[in-house]
Design goal:
The protein is mainly beta and 128 residues long. 0% of the residues lie in helices and 45% in strands. It contains no helices and 11 strands. The protein is globular and about 45 Å long.
Length: 128
Amino acid sequence: QLQIVESGGGSVQPGGSLRLSCTDSGSPGFRLSYYSIGWFRQAPGKEREVVSSISRSGFDTIYADSVEGRFTISRDDAKDTVYLQMNSLRAEDTGTYYCAASSTGLAYFDPRIEPDYWGQGTQVNVSS
């Protein structure tokens, strides 16, 4: 099965940038390129929310209003990796960021449908 690994989290000051990466651990026969990918985050005391997502083809992307214009999602199927470039970070972007894979292939992650696979998460802290 797919084993998702996130990386790139860390601590940054407001206005700074981070790039998160989502890849798979190399399970034979499973590749991220077979799935649509979503980046979710969960802040302390809050529910998990979808931040951005990309279709299997890479042609369609969706962003939460709160990150539109600041975050960019992309995928490099040759490297079997999905990136989330986060610029102009704010304190409210703090949280644990999770990568999820959906076999629907659609950019839209229906909240009624559980993604097929989740990563363990990477922590992002934005503070001065």
